[in-house]
Amino acid sequence: MPSKAYDLTGRTAFVTGAASGIGRASAVLLARAGAAVHCADRDAPGLHETAGLIKESGGTAHPHLLDVADRTQVDQAVAAAAESTGRVDVLAAIAGIMHSSPVLETREEDLDRVLDVNFKGVLYACQAAARVMVEAGTGGSIVTMASGAVDTGGPGLLCYGASKAAVVQLTKTLATEVGPHGIRVNAVAPGWIRTPMTDRHDAAARARTEDLMARRSPLGRVGTPEDVAHAVLYLASDAAAFTTGQILRPNGGVAMPW
Fold this sequence. Notes:
The structure is a single chain. By secondary structure, the chain is an alpha/beta fold. The protein has helices at 21-32, 44-56, 71-83, 108-136, 149-152, 158-178, 203-216, 225-236; strands at residues 12-16, 36-41, 60-65, 90-93, 140-145, 183-188, 247-248. It has a seven-stranded parallel β-sheet with strand order 3-2-1-4-5-6-7, with helices on both faces. Helix 1 (21-32) packs parallel to helix 2, helix 1 (21-32) crosses helix 8 and helix 4 (108-136) runs parallel beside helix 6.
């Protein structure tokens, strides 16, 4: 049955950025698919709220207070997730931050912070999870979070876009290295999604941007965290058993790269 391909019962998932937005939606959906979900984030209230949502719906959730830019914290959290079962079957490395500044005004500390979270944080999670997967010998799926910014560019997107382009390269390289172990590695590159990250704009600016993005999309709307979560679930599941090293773009058709 088609639904069986999406069944994650008995599997362990580790999700970073789980306190809100795409990370929360992905954690909740992976749990609904049957996975025991280890939710990680540095936002303690949001993290525990996500875990509560999963438990209220009958799922299994384990919160981990975590700064993904700290390699030691990442290693310890992934090891803790694997401790009970000896395996991590799914990694969804979603945690990320936004910074916007013109190239000529971008400071070194701005670039360093974005790369620390958006690239190094993903790298650390991938390394920790892949080591567990290789040792367990049971395969697995790693899903990274890129961005439509890698396809379109735009003013002010140097730090954010560069970090996400690095994630794409990491995804493709890692896919070639761990594929022989039965581990798949893919990226999701969303378009404009209504999340707390986009809510940083004032209401008027957000409304203008969302109207523009909706008009650019053949579907006539902007995305939701759940739109992206379903892409994460697909790549995490056996439905994507022959998919690796790819970029899945839930962007409403705003960008259509070959």
